[in-house]
Design goal:
- The complex is a heterodimer of chains A (about 260) and B (about 150).
- With about 260 residues, chain A is an all-alpha fold.
- Chain A has 9 helices and no strands.
- Helix content of chain A is about 85%, strand content about 0%.
- In chain A, α3 packs parallel to α6.
- The termini of chain B are far apart.
- With about 150 residues, chain B is of the alpha/beta class.
- Chain B has 2 domains: about 35 residues; about 100 residues, no CATH class.
- In chain B, about 25% of the residues lie in helices and about 30% in strands.
- Classes of the chains: A mainly alpha (about 260), B alpha/beta (about 150).
- At the A-B interface, α2, α6, α7 and α8 of A face α1 of B.
Chain lengths: ~260, ~150
């Protein structure tokens, strides 16, 4: 019994220590002084790696999710004779929920795991330690550009996802299923509010960007520098980031749309 | 040269994001550029507004001329006052304009319909419309119908 309580206590202390280390790492990476020109170029390179290279998966999944939403929505709405509401259904579900959440989940799998593995391998091969030896702070040189790149890229990817999803929905709804184009767009426009729906979606994706990238770079920075350690940390990145995104999404939705 | 192509792809990426946001703003949410002309406010007194919400449309002859900007309850007269914001382009409503709460379709959203009267004086900022027709509450209608049925 006592053993069990002690184990619980040790587990809790470990969790709190991890949270503390993650916060210290983030604070040092963000508030550390660095040469502006150099860090700007490094961030640019990382935006290319995590943002531009994720574009293809975002475009394809956005298009197909929009198309499938229109298809599923149509079969239900047509029973009530209100298939004109298809545009509003597609746009609202994409802008409010699916856009930010699915983009964040894909981003965690496509870019987050890569960030963890890259930083982890740097740590395992003692590149981070060597940087420190020659007087370069690895937090500013390696962690900070990757963190900023993730925070910048995810909202942009999410906006692109929503836009391409709406186009996919329009493609299926108007061209294939024959919903009237005028009422499709007019219903969408009258139901969707730029501030309340689209900007709230963007705010969600900014929050997800910070959280997912933070988890990814921290798991890479904090891992056990072995092959198995890298594997474990990569798994943890995807699992923790996905859970954090889904949990936070419920919370943000409750605050933004639940009139809490 | 490596940096140049890198900068170019990131530039295209950011541009694509901006274009997508523009598309969402203009096509999806129908955010029109703010018109330079202003608007004026009038209130309307209703017995019952059942289901009308702020931001609902105000229309005249089916054309949207403004929006509902506020709804408040006046305990003195036990009525609801609805503030309407009407675009300055539609200045020529008469003083005795009537307002009705209408429903788009059978179960659609509630909106306000204005119909102008014969008074030569135009409606101006701060006026109150008293000649109104309240929202149709389906439950009351069914109740009346049942009452009539049993009376027969």
């Amino acid at each position: 019994m006592m053993d069990w309580v002690a184990r619980l206590g040790r587990g809790s202390l470990d969790r709190i220590a991890v949270l503390g280390r993650a916060t210290v790492m983030l604070a040092q990476a963000i508030f550390g002084r660095s040469q502006v020109g150099v860090s700007w170029r490094l961030t640019l390179a990382q935006v290319h790696a995590v943002g531009v290279l994720s574009l293809s998966i975002i475009l394809v999944s956005g298009l197909f999710i929009g198309m499938v939403l229109a298809l599923q929505g149509y079969t239900i709405l047509v029973d009530y004779g209100s298939e004109q509401a298809l545009g509003q259904m597609v746009a609202l579900s994409l802008a409010r929920e699916l856009g930010p959440v699915v983009t964040a989940l894909l981003f965690a799998g496509r870019a987050g795991s890569a960030l963890t593995a890259e930083i982890g391998l740097m740590k395992a091969t003692e590149q981070l330690a060597s940087l420190e030896m020659i007087g370069v702070d690895p937090l500013r040189r390696v962690i900070a550009p990757r963190f900023w790149a993730g925070c910048i890229s995810l909202p942009i990817l999410s906006i692109i996802f929503v836009a391409i999803g709406c186009l996919g929905g329009a493609l299926v709804g108007i061209v294939w299923l024959g919903v009237d184009a005028g009422s499709f767009w007019a219903n969408m426009q009258s139901a969707t509010d730029f501030g309340a729906d689209i900007m709230n979606g963007v705010i969600k994706s900014i929050v997800f960007g910070v959280v997912v990238t933070w988890i990814a770079v921290f798991q890479g920075y904090d891992l056990e520098p072995t092959a198995a350690g890298i594997a474990r940390a990569t798994t943890k990145t995807v699992v923790y980031a996905s859970l954090a995104v889904l949990g936070l999404d419920f919370f943000l939705t409750a605050v933004m749309f639940g009139e809490l | 040269m490596y940096h140049r192509s890198l900068e170019l792809t990131v530039g295209v990426f950011v541009l694509l994001g901006a274009l997508a946001l523009g598309f969402l703003a203009l096509e999806v949410s129908g955010l029109a550029p703010q018109q330079a002309d202003g608007s004026y406010r009038v209130s309307a007194r209703f017995e019952n507004i059942a289901g009308l919400t702020a931001r609902a449309k105000v229309s005249a002859a089916g054309v949207t001329v403004g929006r509902v900007v506020g709804i408040r309850y006046d305990s003195g007269t036990a009525a609801a006052f609805v503030d309407l914001e009407i675009s300055d382009r539609y200045r020529d409503f008469s003083k005795d304009t009537t307002a009705a709460i209408l429903t788009a379709g059978l179960l659609g959203e509630k909106y306000i319909g204005l119909s102008t009267g014969g008074d030569p004086d135009p409606l101006s900022d701060g006026d109150v419309i008293f000649d109104t027709q309240s929202a149709v509450v389906l439950e009351e209608l069914i109740g009346k119908f049942l009452l009539n049925m049993s009376a027969n």
